[in-house]
TrEMBL record:
CDD domains: PRTases_typeI. Belongs to the ComF/GntX family. It comes from Dyadobacter arcticus. This is ComF family protein. Signal peptide: none annotated. It comes from the Bacteria. Transmembrane segments: none annotated.
Length: 230
């Protein structure tokens, strides 16, 4: 045991592992994120000033029982850096870790949705081929590992390639994603968690809900790793 610890420390000296949040060296049993970053990430708790705006995102969709976001996204902030790490720099472990942390905190707070299935928001095949994976799948996988709720990344398919939602108004975002999803699997589950990386206006997630309603699903819980500030 002592030999393994010394060997691990020696390897860290030769090939230092860095925290994806602050780029400081990881020590001991730390993986992906250092202890300080894990504790200091800007969480959206029950007393957050952003909680009210989060709950009103889907006020016009009565089938959405609740919506939760784990972290607050700000430009050039630590959360943006982490999202970029697993979306654009291929660090899948960041996505799985954030999904796991989110699941753990919902369990600890007694806020875990009583859902039958987790569905990750799909990427168009063209974009998925370029990136190599769907970032929302990684979040759902990590969340599922901790909570035991099964997940699927194939129940929904994005059948039309769309322009980026960045810079568009809420109305433009809704028009951009209208009719973009299609059901690809039979869904017997009635209570669904829909999981994505960032919640902005909610247009994409709302379109997911409308598509799943046509498949017979009855109620939904929206979960995203981050909530974007406006």
């Amino acid at each position: 045991m002592i030999f393994k610890t010394l060997l691990s420390d020696f390897i860290d000296l030769l090939f230092p592992r860095c925290c994806e949040g602050c780029e400081h060296s990881l020590v001991g049993n730390e993986e992906t994120l250092c202890t300080i970053c894990r504790v200091s990430l800007p969480r959206i708790g029950h007393n957050s000033l952003n909680l009210a705006s989060l709950q009103y995102k889907f006020v016009n969709v009565p089938e959405v029982v609740s919506s939760h976001s784990f972290l607050l996204f700000t430009k050039k902030g630590k959360v943006q850096k982490l999202l970029h790490a697993f979306k654009y720099r291929g660090n899948k472990e960041v996505g799985i870790l954030l999904g796991s942390m989110f699941g753990e905190e919902l369990i600890e707070s007694g806020s875990l949705p009583p859902a039958d299935l987790i569905i990750s928001v799909p990427l168009h095949e063209k974009k998925k081929k370029i990136r190599g994976y769907n970032q929302s799948d990684l979040l759902a996988e990590g969340f599922s590992r901790v909570t035991g709720i099964p997940w699927t990344g194939t129940a929904l398919q994005r059948i039309r390639y769309t322009e980026t939602q960045t810079g568009k108004s809420k109305l433009e975002r809704r028009e951009n994603v209208k009719g973009v999803f299609e059901i690809k699997e039979k869904l017997d589950q009635k209570s669904i968690i829909i999981m994505d990386d960032v919640l902005t206006t909610g247009a994409t997630l709302e379109e997911c809900v409308q598509t799943l309603l046509m498949a017979g699903c009855k109620q939904f819980y929206i979960l995203t790793i981050a909530l974007a500030q406006h």
